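User: Sequence in, structure out. Go.
Assistant: Echoing your sequence, followed by the structure tokens.
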Amino acid sequence: MLTAGVFAGGINTVVGSGTLVTFPVLLAIGYPPVVANVTNTVGLVPGSVSGAIGYRAELAGQRARVLRLGTASVLGGIVGAILLLTLPESAFEAIVPVLIAIALVLVVLQPRLSRMVAERRTRARPHGGPLLWTGIFGTGVYGGYFGAAQGIILLALMGIAIPDEDLQRLNGLKNVLAALVNGVAAVLFIAVAEVAWAPALLLAVGAAAGGQLGARVGRRLSPALLRGVIVAVGLAAIVQIVI
């Protein structure tokens, strides 16, 4: 779990989708899907915070964005966590393979999305407004409920809605928003849900280290290799849940 946490923390900081590494590991060692998801969320919070701290230079001058979009992330994360806790476990088991499949498609299409965002940035004027806020809220609901590829969705939304901003600065903002979603969901889970604390603590230590590693050297890693690993473990998770 420690190694999986390091890997997930690094991936989440650079792009997103770390859950597609750690969630299948938790399933493989025998935890039920909902317990695995709750434990995964709690364990990865330190990695999200660590990644945001690692990108603190890119966050300079973005306080207003953090406050405005952060409210959407917090509210969305709360709604998503409540949905996870109130819907039957059978619903989670039915929905999550679909969510993982969608996340895998986003992982595979991420280079194309990045190119589309780059093209859009040459044509549009910077804006955010209620549409971006709504999109961030919806992503927060998704993140509070499950969260795989949450970072990719956030980057795509902000890259289109804030077209003249540097993508590295948006990545720093993405890390803060993901940390807020995971943080509020984790607080609810700790209060009222079953957390497997031993793997959660191992994940937390690994993810915190991975967040710093991802912030420092993540841009040097091969994107193709990362996507290949993520897709492989995501498919393994789908098989694990369905079977």
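User: And one key feature?
Assistant: The chain has ten helices and no strands.
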